[in-house]
Amino acid sequence: MTKISDNLKEHHLHLPHIHLPHIHHRKEWSNPIEFLMTCVGFAVGLGNVWRFPYLCFKNGGSAFVIAFLSMLFIIGLPLFFLEISIAQYSKFGPLEIWKAVPMVRGIGICSLLIASFISLYYNILIAYSLIYAISSFLPTLPWTNCDFYWNNPKCCVASSTIKNLSGLLTSVSNCPLDSESPAKQYFNNYVLNISNGIEELGEINWKVAVSLFVCWLLIFLSLSKGVQSLGKVSYLTAIFPYVMIIALIIRGVTLEGAMTGIEYFILKINTDKLKDLETWVDAANQVYFCLSISQGGLYTLGRHNSFNYNHQRTSTIVAILDGFTGILAGLAIFSVLGYMSNKTGIEVKDLAVGGPGLSFIGI
Q: Of 176, 183, 186, 197, nearest to 362 (Cα)?
């Protein structure tokens, strides 16, 4: 043994230096409820209220709901739990966590870029919503008639139901097939102020610009003190959407013909769409989108948890609320589409209100 020790001294054996990064103490959430509410506000939001009804309309209503709920628990819940777990135990963000595997460090950079792009256009949507909120205080709602300066000759308000010879109520529309509703023209001609083509740049849309500035200012104030301020704001951002959705549902289901839209949304299963691969691909994309998986945000939130926090329970609650919120938003939008179908005499699936602006036109 002494001989081996002497040999080691003689040859000056040096062990490789292993550098362990110093982990700074990170601020933790004031209480577990704030983390739960922040995750709910982070996952449950415009992805449900804005994008979910649009994809339902595109993919046959109830067929997409079945595909979405399946993907939510097969793909969404496990990945959501995985990202929170990695962040909570490592205390690293999206850029630092992938240093463990240098070959794929680009994943962290890509997730940061994705989150940046999503933040940019999400705030645009919130800016639109702010314009609608302000306009709703006007004496006459600007999306209910064709008497405003942004309306053109194509604008038409459909007639109400009348009694036929047998005494039954029927829906008769006095609008031509190429007509546009006041809600559609308000969104396209007033809020967006769409030009005739890409060659016409037009002028700055000041109402959207000011609204967007207000949105970014609110975000800055919410994040000014890190998780301490974000946790307090999350009580509003997590609860307020449910108040608005429930109000929209109450208003929507009281409209004439609302059940027609609700049947298309959740009661009548389109088996052809259910067998279509595109429906399942859109459902998987929506799960990634609304739960904010692979975007880096969950790493940022999870690393501020205490080491022993029960994030499994939080992940399950958020996944269930996410699916529940999508269905609530669908009820709110499709009840209005049923009303539009009843007023125009056009079936819900044939209404020309598809696209990302569906929720704004429907509301």
A: 183
